[in-house]
Amino acid sequence: MASSIRWVIRGVNGRVRCNFNWPLITARSVVIITAGEVKFGTTQARPHPGPGQDFFYALGDADIWVSNICPRFNEFRPGDTGHVEFILHVGWDSPLDVAVTITVDNAVPIEIQGYLN
Fold first, then answer.
1. Domain that holds residue 17
2. Phi-psi category of 14—alpha, beta or left, where left has phi over 0 and alpha has psi -120 to 50?
3. DSSP codes, 44-71
4. Were 11 and a residue from 24, 50, 95, 106 both cysteine, which residue would form a disulfide, CB within 3.0 to 4.6 Å?
5. How far does Cα 42 stand from its chain's mean position?
6. Is 80 exceeded by the pLDDT of residue 108?
7. Is residue 114 part of a domain?
8. Angle CA 96–21–85, to nearest 5
9. Kind and range of the H or E run holding 25
10. Does the predicted TM-score (pTM) go above 0.85?
């Protein structure tokens, strides 16, 4: 089963290396990350139980994307915790507030290929 967490990063501009610690992540996790510009304030009451969100996504003119997604966990290193590293790109003249949604699916991939030549 997949689980998601949302993380707001304020004042992003250019290419930024990010790291998010989450013990749920293993070296074989499937991690999907989406990103978009956000504005603060709510537009309506919460229609569902669970955590609130004091921001909303705004489709602006900036190019925002995520690359180089690397789930990490070294089971042989005592004290290591699962995390994901990724590059967040914001193509705009000034810093923007961005929310990333990190989704982790810990079902083992049905096949893991070796090196392709």
1. 2-105
2. left
3. S---SSS----EEE---SSEEEEEEEEE
4. 95
5. 22
6. no
7. no
8. 60
9. none
10. no
Answer whether residue 32 is part of any domain: yes
Mean pLDDT of 93-116: 84
Can you tell me which residue has the tokens 């967040």? 88
- Give the C-alpha separation, 11 to 108, whole Å: 36
Number of domains in the chain: 1
Q: What is the mean pLDDT of residues 88-103?
A: 96
Distance of CA 81 to the CA centre of its chain: 17
CATH number, domain of 101, equals: 2.60.40
53, part of any domain: yes
Whether 54 is covered by a domain: the verdict is: yes
